Amino acid sequence: MTAAPLPHATILGYPRIGRRRELKRAVESFWAGRITEAQLIETASELRAATRARLVELGLPAAGGAVPESFSFYDQVLDATLALSAIPERFAGATGSDLGTYFTLARGDEQHQPLEMTKWFDTNYHYSVPEIDERTPFAANPAQLLTQLAEAAEAGIESRPVLVGPVTYLLLAKAADGAADGFDPVDRLDEVTAVYAEILSALAAAGATWVQLDEPALVSDSLRTSREDTLALVERAYAVLGAASTAGEAPARPQILITAPYGDSSRALARLGALPVEAVQADLVRGTLPAAALADGSLARAFAGTQLVAGVVDGRNIWRTDLRAAFATLTTLAEAGVETVVGTSNSLQHVPHDVADEQKLDARLKSWLAFADQKVAQVAVLARGLAEGAASIEEDLAEVDRVLADRAAAPGVRIDDIRSQVAAAGDADRNRASEEDRREAQRGLGIPQLATTTIGSFPQTGEIRKARSAFVKGEIDEQAYEGFLEAEIERVIRLQEEIGLDVLVHGEAERNDMVQYFAELLDGFAVTEHGWVQSYGSRATRPSILWGDVSRPAPMTVRWSAFAQSLTERPVKGMLTGPVTILAWSFVRDDQPLGDTASQVALALRGEIADLVDAGITIVQVDEPALRELLPLDRERQAAYLDWSVGSFRLATGGAAPEVQIHTHLCYSEFGEIIDAVDGLDADVTSIEAARSRMDVVEPLGNHGYSRGIGPGVYDIHSPRVPGVDEQTELIRIAAARIPGEQLWVNPDCGLKTRGYDETVASLTNLVLAAKAVRAGA
Ligand code: MET
Ligand SMILES: [Zn+2]
Prior knowledge:
Layout: H1 22-31, H2 37-57, E1 67-69, H3 76-83, H4 98-107, E2 117-119, E3 126-128, E4 131-132, H5 143-154, E5 159-164, H6 166-172, E6 174-175, H7 189-205, E7 210-214, H8 227-242, E8 255-260, H9 269-273, E9 279-283, H10 291-295, H11 298-302, E10 307-313, H12 323-335, E11 340-344, H13 363-367, H14 372-388, H15 394-409, H16 416-424, H17 435-441, E12 451-452, H18 462-472, H19 478-499, H20 516-521, E13 523-526, E14 533-536, E15 539-541, E16 545-551, H21 558-566, E17 573-577, H22 579-584, E18 587-588, H23 594-614, E19 619-623, H24 638-653, E20 661-666, H25 675-680, E21 685-688, H26 698-704, E22 709-712, H27 725-738, E23 745-746, H28 757-775
Parallel strand pairs: 1-5, 4-6, 5-7, 7-8, 8-9, 9-10, 10-11, 12-23, 16-18, 17-19, 19-20, 20-21, 21-22
Antiparallel strand pairs: 2-3, 13-16, 14-15
Helix pairs in contact: 1-2, 7-8, 12-14, 16-23, 18-19, 23-24, 27-28
The structure holds methionine and zinc ion.
The site of zinc ion has 6 residues, from loops.
Binding site for 5-methyltetrahydropteroyltri-L-glutamate: 24, 124, 585
Family: Belongs to the vitamin-B12 independent methionine synthase family.
Enzyme class: transferase
């Protein structure tokens, strides 16, 4: 047994933006110069104090390292960059306080492009990508970790510092621009490990008894290394880190907990247990236990002297845990002789704070839910059961049994009519006319070569937001609000005509968010008041809750699209969000396969497309920006995913007549991996992000012999910079060299809702001129 074992209950991390998004407000005020750095630091410290106190109140022991220090001013990967002092050379001029440098890396400034952001594993959270080359300096800077540890100690809490582990850190990094060809950041693992060792020794000197090092790279097949190689890298790094003493002799370290959230680590688990660390966490929601190793005792032998933190409480969704099932898993482990701690599958950073804050949710629905605070309490209950026996928690288990039974039987959860419609949908409903027939039928649309268009949204101005909030608050009536939106749509249509775009959009002014807008109009969804979840930095989204069978009581977009089309001779694209993206950016029911839920959403969208077409719309775009994000990290699960995700898109769009042109939009550029799936969507035209990578996507498309319409973005909408005519012409040419002109569309990378009008008009004007230049062969 370890010298000072972890108590029976812990979590991997907790939301850090604050119950009322206090951190967002403080950080943004600091950026705007309204508060000082000292004030920001003070607010952050108060938030951390509140979190620790809350966690203890909810049942995590104050002693023994059960309370994680998972706070971050912006992002946990960026925190590791600072802890390693791994500031890319291109930021050399950007010196300041630690926090100043930190925010410059995150957000850039006049002289510096920010670090790139990308999605964290299969979540909708974005991290700042480290840039490493052969010369990146590494030096231990544990200041932030030490501050937190000292704060906790002062409050009488023995907390557990948290840091992204060395292997995951380097595998999530990219080679900096100046690195030699073939350089991989992970080449520097030994040096980085040495710096981690120094950080650990500083933590031990400051009295830390535990440290948590997150290694989700262990569960992913989507990184540069194979899983087997990742495991070997982890073994190499932790052999070094584990060699230090936990008993205080130099070199000293705290006890180490390695975590493997977001997926299945079962194949690696016995080897992880054998590492010279004191605890290993496994995600037992996404993952499983290695049944054979459990049965033959080898898991228990590998874990002799090592605790297993069993991630049985789901940190990715908002449903109350089936405590009886979770307890059975814990019992299996304990009976097999594995020293077990109850934990969450991953950090609770992906769920909102507290169900109790929701005043407007239906009471019955509310009783089925668990946000972060409720999940911590569930962990505590299970831990009590583990320590004191099943009988001690029987009442809690029975209560959850009742809640789950109530949920299963509640009206709206299963609607026969919807289920039989889904069951009746067959292959024929997922197949349109042949590509050729459609191309022929769509000639009537009169679309030119290198047709210009946008992705859908136009700038969401202050006036739009003001009008929406006035309407929500009842300050203006529906008629006034709709009049405002019509005027806005008319303005956007005229503007596009003046700029000379070929295929127009209505601008999406009526949408607060591309998923929530539909969730509010579909049956089967609920929206929260305070269910904010960090998306990146100071940004948060409020995912809707998909709790029941989904249907469409009335048309959702027809009014706006038809109005826009009535104003112009040019085609206006109808604009819908696809089933996969609606699921990915909501909290989804966990009582049936995702594919079943996706089919219901697809049928609702299919009805909407039919109504749009009846109203005279000839082109419909169904956005699927999350198609790549939901791709399972585990290769073995990818085929099944692609099957249902592609199938649901085809069910949504499969009823469209050949002369209706179906578009889709994806926004990421790591495209090679899913190119077959994109082909499988069978959309007539696909727009995709490409400007930032300077058209990297056209190469795989060309090699693939892609035959459909494709619009690789020529204008990076992530920054206010206006790309010139020459620059966009150049990008179109790069694409035209690989893709025939009649297939090629010209469009920005993504929607324009976060942009201002001046830059939008200038950039789109240049885009149209660039398309003309290439058409003219100039
Ligand atoms: C994140 S993809 C966004 C697509 C949407 N139609 C828009 O233009 O905003
Ligand atoms: Zn997009």
